[in-house]
Each structure stands twice: as structure tokens, then as C-alpha cells.
Amino acid sequence: MSQPTTTGGRRQPASSPLSDLLTGERGLGRYAFYLPLAFLIAFFVVPMLLTLVWSVFERTNFWMEPGFTFGAYADFFGSARFENFLRAMKSSAISVLVAFVLGFPIAVFVRSSVPEKAQHKAILLFILPFMISEVIRIFALRPILGRHGVLNDALIGSGLIDDPISIFIYTPTGVVIGEVMSYLPFMVFCGFLAMESVPRYIFEVCDDLGSDTLTTLRRVIVPLAAPGILAATIFIFINGIGVFLIPDILGGPGAVNAGTLVLNAISALDFPLAMAIAAIMLVILMALLLIGHWLFDLTKLLDPAKR
Amino acid sequence: MSNSVLAVEATGIAKSYGTVQALKPTDLRIEPNEYYVLLGPSGGGKTTTLRLIAGLVRPTAGRISIYGQDVTELAPDKRSTSMVFQSYALFPHMTVEENVAYGLTLRRMPRDEIRAEVSRMLDLVGLNGYDNRRPHELSGGQQQRVQLARSLVLHSDILLLDEPLAALDAKLRKDMCLELKNIQKTVGVTFVHVTHNQEEAMTVADRIGLVAGGELVEQGSPEAIYNRPEKRFTADFIGENNIFDGTATGAGLDIGGRVLGLPTPAETGREISLSVRSEDMRLLDGEPKPEGWQALSGTLIDKVYLGLIGSSVVRLESGQDITVRQVGAMSSGEVGASVTVAWPTEAGRIHLS
To answer: Quick check: B93 and A224 CB within 8 A?
Structure first.
């Protein structure tokens, strides 16, 4: 019976076991929407839970063993590490502030004064620095900020100062400069994204009502762009605490942030301590996100319908 | 008239963007307490004119005075003008009350005075009790009322409205037009209103200025502009007119083979246009042409019944299409039939330019 037959003129849609398996009514296709969830669980929830669990394990000579102790936390809070951590938070907060003061006006300017068609292109320019590895970008600051670097040469050459300024590098200031340079684009992006929900008319309305620039910023623009500013703030703040490259390359011998602390703990084979520090950062991040969401509904940033 | 102070007096104002001339040198005179409408096609220069008065753009030439004071160099907030923008111009994060109060808080007025003033304005625009709503909870019409209140509350001498009703649907626009006119009469402030919508302009205006191609083409009362347009452009833009272009001869207007009678004689040899309103034209159903009428024959190519009006399109032998609108009646002819269009000679209007 190898003859093709049609029964009663009805034609079966083409099907094979494979396509049935993928797209059939009971196929695997219906699980496609769960993929992101699976991804989130595998690469976020599980590692984070492991971090928490390992942070209370007992330390052994070269690894750790199951247990329940807050030894790592006691170690962290009872040592100079905690002070270093606080100092990193402070320097990170300063970086956020500087990035806001420098970056947010750029976002406002692009939104208010660049022709609508060119706005996205202008913002895209800020992506260019990310085409270069962060290590190289930060390293490249050394010959610029050093005692005999480009910046000091320029200042001396222009007669503004007589002796080179040594505060630009291997100091907490150096770390702030590095962080601002690295993370300024995020303030511009997020600020602009939030500003997109601000109609361009608003600037003229404010002009017409007699609102000066500072009042307009304070009472209209910043409140409207707050979700974006907050998103950028959290991002820069957490990175400032966590990315060890910047203090390592620009901060000099004493410069330490949470990233450095974790790295040192791992070098010393104190894994529970490394996990504990990571867990503390995680808690800070989650708390900031929660507060931000509670204040401004951060999902607005990505959903034009909610604006 | 000439010795009274004008609300707006612009002399030779012009605006260029690079090589593009948005507004050619223009004189504009607006009387106190007048409702003046700048009407015209998009890109014609009417919004530029409004923004020049507001101070949102600076003229490349000319001077502007408001109630006798030269404001050419003044910033928008230093002029006694307020602007109502097209739409989406409310502060989305503020309540209705905060929106209306914004300009007053900048002027450091005491809080209870502000409150009283704001509620008086909300009453005026019919939004009593909406104080605590947010803009996104309001309809388009309500949002525009809030904008109106936000501008009126500052008690500026001149209110500028930039296509304030453009985003509203036709029915709402009609209601808002009448309301705008009433509010203007109530507050007694000079309104300058920009629109591309003819009906809107006719409804609200005391006087219409027709702006196109960067020029103030013609101005006058709605009635004058509709019935007695001076320029060919006006006749073409306002209402539905049929326009014949040709050369004036001793006998009338030569439109290439046919000579049409003119209501008044025109200078022989001159290129002129004759316009006739479509509602002044008739289709002759076989009857002879009445005395003192002009007639042209053609083919009926389309007819539409619109309820109040029946509209027929006739293609003349010259290829020109003529629209004839008759109240209540419909041409009895079939599409494709030969017909004659006719109009009283005195219904024609001569345009020299």
C-alpha cells in the first residue's frame, strides 16, 4: 500500500515527528516563554543563593565545608575592611554626584536643543568609548593624570599652576575621576531615556511662564526624569563599589573597594569572607532597586505606555 | 483708530532660518481686545508669526510693540504675553491645580491668593472640582482648558494660542471654539490664535489674517474674507470657489476661446482671475440662461449628496473642473450627461493678484 491516497478529499497538514515535537499542540514550543525564566534562575537566582549559603560555611584551609557561622561577617565588620568598604561607598557616591552634574545636563541639552532626528545619533556617540576594553581605557588615564602627564603639562604650560598637581592620580580623587570617566555615559543614557518622556514643548512652556533654567530643572525636568536618574545612580554606585580595576590602576597603594576586598579574600583562600562581602553588596543593590521602584516605578523607563 | 494704542504692532518683522525665509517682512496690527486669527496652510509662516510675538523666536528684521512698548529684544517671560500650546504641554507630574499655579508660584504670590486665583480660573474654563486630577486623567479637551487656565491666570495682555484645538475631534473642536470665544469676551484679553482650520477660524475670529508662503496675504472680518476676497489665493483657500484665469478684454475675461462677463470692467490686456463661489452657481436643466447670467457647458462627471448640500462636479470643454453646490437640491442629470453651469454675472469677484 505505498500509493499516496487522499481520504474523502481531506488533506493532512504536513507534519513530521520533529516538527510535532517542537511546534505541535503538545510540542516543546509552548515552553519557549519560560526560557528567560530558566535563564534568570540558572544565572541569577541560583548563584545568588549559593553566595548567601557559602557565606555562612565554615572556612577550611583551602576551601570550605558546610556549616552555619557568621564568622565571615564578624571578620568583615570587625576589621579595617568595613572602613574601607564605607570609604568606597563614599567615593562612589561622589562619583554619582559628579556624573549627575556633568552628565544630566548633556541629556537635557540633547533633548531640548538637538533636532529630533539627530538625537539618537548624538546619544549613540556616547557608546563609542565602550568599544575599547575598560582596562585599556582606565590605563590610558595614567599618562594623562600623572605628575608629568598631559593634564599637568597643559596646566603648567598655560601658566595656571607652577608645580604639577599630584592629586589627580594614586589618590581617592584619581578613583573618582576614573569612575566618572567610565560611567558618565550611563548617566547620559538613562537621563536621555527618561527625558524622552518629557515633551519638548515643556522647555518653551517654562520659558513662557517665566521659569528660569534652574527652577525649570528643579521643579519640572528632574522630577520627570527621576526614574532615569535613579537608575543611573544605582548602576554607577554599585559599579563604583564593585569594580576593582579602577582603584587598582588609579588609586595607589591604599585604594580599596569591595571588589578589591573580595579579590584579596579569594587570594587568601578565605572563600566565606569573599562570599559574605558579595552578599552584602547584593543586599545593598537590592535595597536600592526596591527603594527606587517604590519611589518611581522604574518599569516606566522601558514602557512608553506608562508615561 | 490710528491714534489709539495697538495691542500688537509689528513693523517689517521677518524671520529666516539660514536661506529659508519663514516669514517675509510683514506688518501686522492687532487691536486691543480683538480676537485675531492667523489662518493658513501648514508651513506658511503663521506659527512663526505667533512665536515672534511670544518672543520664543527672535526676528531677523523688524520691530514688535505690545501696547506701545517695544518688546523686540525682550525674553518671552518679560512680555505681557502667554501662550497656549498645541497639546501635551501640561506638566505631567503635577496636578491640575499645580499646573495652573506654576506661573504664579514663580511670581512669589502668597499661597492663599494663588489658591483663590487658580480656582477662579478653573471655574472660568469649566473645570471646577478637577483640582487634584493629573493630566493623564483628563480628556484632550480638558487638558487644553487647563492650559488655557494656566495662561489666563497670569493676566497677560495678550493670549497666544498655537493650534490649540488641532488634537481634538471635530465635534469637540466646535464646542471649544464657541467656548474660547465666550472666554475671550469674558476676560476681555486680546487673543491671537493660529489655526489651519477654516471653520475654526470663522467661528472664533473678529478678524482673520490669512498667512501663506511667508506672507500676510489678506486680512479682514470672516464675512469680508469669505464674501469679498481681494486676492486669488484667498478665494482659492477660503470656501469652495471656482476660479477662471485669463486676460481682461473690453468685453470681459478671455479664458481662451470664451469670454466671460465681469461684474465690473477691468483694465484691458491685464492678467486677472475671476472667482465664483460654488453655491452661487447653478446647473441649468435645459432652461434658457437667465438675463445677466454667464453660462458654460460641460459634462457632469460626479455628484455627491451631502444632506444639506448637493455637490456636482462638471468638467468644462477646456478641461477645467467646476464645483456646483446647491442647498437641498440635487442635479437631475445623470453622470456623463451634457450640462450647462451658470451664475449671475455680479456673483463674480475680480482678483488682480
So the answer is: yes
**Minimal-distance CA residue of chain A relative to B152:** A209
Query: Does residue A135 sit within a domain?
Result: yes
Residue B40 is assigned to a structural domain of this protein: yes
Q: Which of B227, B254, B274 is the last residue of a domain?
A: B227
A199 CB neighbours in chain B (<8 A) are: 88-89
Identify whether B3 is part of a domain: no
- Structure ipTM over 0.85, yes or no: no
Domain around A198? 64-306
For residue A232, what is the domain's CATH number?
Answer: 1.10.3720.10
Span B52-88, pLDDT tens digits? 999 999 999 999 999 999 999 998 888 999 999 987 7
What does the pLDDT read at residue B353? 81
Using one digit for the tens of pLDDT, what is the confidence trace for A197-240? 777 788 889 988 888 889 999 999 998 888 889 989 999 999 99
The answer for A 166-205 residues in CB contact with B (under 8 A) is: 197, 199, 201-202, 204-205
What is the amino acid identity at position B214? Answer: G
Same domain, B159 and B263: no
| Maximum mean pLDDT: which of B99-103, B291-295, B309-313, B332-336 | B99-103
Closest CA–CA distance from residue A178 to any residue of chain B (Å): 35
CA gap A225, A109 in Å, rounded: 13
Confidence of residue A6 (pLDDT cuts 50, 70, 90): very low
Q: Does B88 touch chain A (CB under 8 A)?
A: yes
For residues B294 and B222, state if they share a domain.
Answer: no
- B154:A209 CB<8 A: yes
Q: Do B85 and A220 touch (CB under 8 A)?
A: no
Q: What is the pLDDT of residues A51-65, one digit of tens each?
A: 999 999 998 888 888
Contact call for B82 and A211, based on CB within 8 A: no
Q: Is residue B234 included in any domain, yes or no? A: no
Residue range of the domain that includes B182: 8-227
Q: Which of A198, A208, A224, A296 to mutate to test the interface with B (most CBs of B within 10 A)?
A: A208
First to last CA, chain A: 65
Which residue in the block uniquely carries the three cell numbers 515633551? A199
Contact present, B262 and B351 (Cβ < 8 Å): no
CA distance A53 to A279: 10
DSSP sequence for B71-137: -TT--GGGSSEEEE-SSS-S-TTS-HHHHHHHHHHHTT--HHHHHHHHHHHHHHTT-TT-TT--GGG
pLDDT > 90? residue B30 = yes
pLDDT for position B1: 44
B150 to chain A, closest Cα gap in Å: 9
- Residues 222..281 of A with a Cβ closer than 8 Å to B: which? 223-224
- Asked if residue A252 belongs to a domain, the reply is yes
Residues of A in contact with B88 (CB under 8 A): 199, 201
pLDDT for A50 equals 93
Looking at the fold, whether B207 and B248 belong to one and the same domain comes out as no
DSSP letter for each residue of B22-68: EEEEEEEEE-TT-EEEEE--TTSSHHHHHHHHHTSS--SEEEEEETT
Same domain membership, residue B323 and residue B175: no
